[in-house]
Amino acid sequence: MIDISHITVDLVKSISLFKPETTLIATFLLAMILDMAFKKSKNIAGYIAIAGLLITAIFLFEQTGANYKAFSSLLVVDSFGQFMKFIVLMSSLIIIVFSFFSDELHNAHTKLGEYYTLIIGMTFGMFLLVGSSNLIMIYVAIETMSISSYVLAGYTKEVKRASEASLKYVIFGAVSSGIMIYGISILFGLTGSLNLFEINQFLVANKVATIPLLLSGLMILSGFGYKISAVPFHFWTPDVYEGAPVTITAYLSVASKAAGFAVLLRFFKTGLLDSIPGTSEAWQLLGSIDWHYVIAVLAVLTMTLGNLVAVWQTNMKRLLAYSSIAHAGYLLMAVSVMNDNGVSAVLIYFFFYMLMNLGAFFVVQLVANKLNSEEVEDYNGLGYRSPVLGVCMTVFLISLTGLPPTSGFIGKLYVFSAVINSGYLWLAVIGVLNSVVSLYYYVKIIRNMYLRDVESTKSKLVFSPVTIAIVLLLAVPTLLFGVYFTPIIEWANYSMNIFVGN
Amino acid sequence: MDLITIAFYFFGALTIVFGAVVVFTKNIMHAAFSLLFTFFGIAGLYVLLSADFLAITQIMIYIGGILVLIIFGVMLTTRITGVEVKSGKIGKVQLAVAGLLTVLIAATLIMIFTTSNWYTADSVPLNSTVNEIGTALLTNYLLAFEAASMLLLIAIVGAAFIARKKH
Amino acid sequence: MEIGLTHYLIISAILFSLGLYGIITRKHAIMVLMGLELVLNATNINFIAFARYGGMNIEGHIAAIFVIILAAAEAAIALAIVLNIYQNFRHVNVDEVDNLKG
Question: What range defines the domain where residue B146 resides?
Fold first, then answer.
């Protein structure tokens, strides 16, 4: 017999901290079963999913203040994870609501049961990923979210471009996760452990050769970089974003990025840093590798490429895809400073990014419902054809550019100040220049909406009050948090401490 | 040369030669069947590394599962008898660049692998790893084990949805 | 020379490179998948070799088992998507599936 008493004590505590994820699994199963039972209703699984996510939110809220290594250090429950899980949870909720109003999905000759079920499955994967502190757990979690997202990207499977998006996503995704796991195997060979805490202890105690460590780090980064669509792992992004249903595009651009950034930060802070508790100074890096510069170079490449290519785009989804690559670049900039201010800036930026990016995608979805088009040209005169939508879209775009008085400005302000405070002035300068470039293509859309086709007598577009209300629910906070941002800042500062063990 | 050395070189050669056939052959069926020998060679290497459970798993899941899946995929998407089975061609320059890149990567990896200090410890040979693996899966790796079951469920739901015919 | 860790790692390195070559040069989606399987198998050789010479560390075996499980799931999903592509396009060459461009 094996003595497992020490395991059971840990297990009882762990399971009580695992309630949000357990709820997600229960929701997944319930949605699947009820969808089969009630074949008539297309959205039944969606309602179950919303209920399940709300219950998950309650359990997640209960975890406030928890700091624990659960399940024999496979998973960490901490306030940083809680913040990121809330981002994931809120975007899942918003996306499911968006999906109720998507003509694209409802006109497809497929049931929607699996759609909502898989969104829950993906949320589960992202929850695991945000908390993972073991390399195998990270791999399992990334695959859980990826496999759901491959299917979701091609959910309208009779539409050629959706199935194409799904093929490209699965091929590139499988390759990048294959390279990631090869990197993990090298790291395992160097340190003899898969647990981030033990890897950290080993690296603190022993001197490890630089080149293999750098190689394995870069290979692991390729897996994370794929999820956050950082250059040079971005080439799937435009095609998948354009081909997938709008709701899923929006989802990938926010939630899966959030999970990717969470695991990136946790990997660096827990695994590769000398853990000195309670310092907000730059984290002490282990080994002779300067990861600051590796990430900073990635950030520069990512935002520059994203912004420059976005300028030429004529399709809204493709444009927003490149814009989301650029935003990943800004966020990487905050990661590259590698201190707690950087983490807090990432959290703040992400919250605002979620609101504005989801809002912009919802407008794209509504317009596509009416006009059956995603071309920038077809937004001509939108400001007059539907004043409310035009104003809201303007708010989202200004916020994405990062101009006051929107929340996007506050987000960028914190990112840039984190970068400048750490002495990376050159990085901040490149970031600002990039924002200027981004102004061009965001303003191009606003110009199309208000200054083009003013005289033409295109019919007014009438949207249902519910959808307008949803757009406003996203647009008003985008503006409001631009002025009254203290609660978010406080929440992010409270959440910026990543649990690094004892 | 003792028996272990001979066995190592046999399985190693089997793995690499057929691995090369997989990526160089023009005929997709040949590639699929070469993959079988590669997997088999790797299972042999596992035995030499005293990973008995993994060797059996390799044969059962890779050869019995994944490979059969791949062959079905090939048969469902290409006409076996026609010329279609051959995969498309890629320009000579691209092939050369890819080949050069591959050699470069291989050289770098081999250089790193031969010169680095790896984490090593005296090993206690085990009669069987099954016990240890079972214990680890249900104690330290319990969550990963359960998460994997969830992942498989998601994969079944997703694959069934995507692959089934139109309603 | 006695067979040691390095020998296995070299086999893994060669297999990994071959797999990458297949992924880069192949057009047929299923051929790309086969290249990917080579990469994953190279990973597993690494894991098990490191486990064997790192004090019979069972973690390496666990990792290899998970890699096999996930490879199976991934192959199933990828092949389902390939079948769907075939129904829509009547071929499965990755670079001919390119309606999306910009």
Answer: 126-167
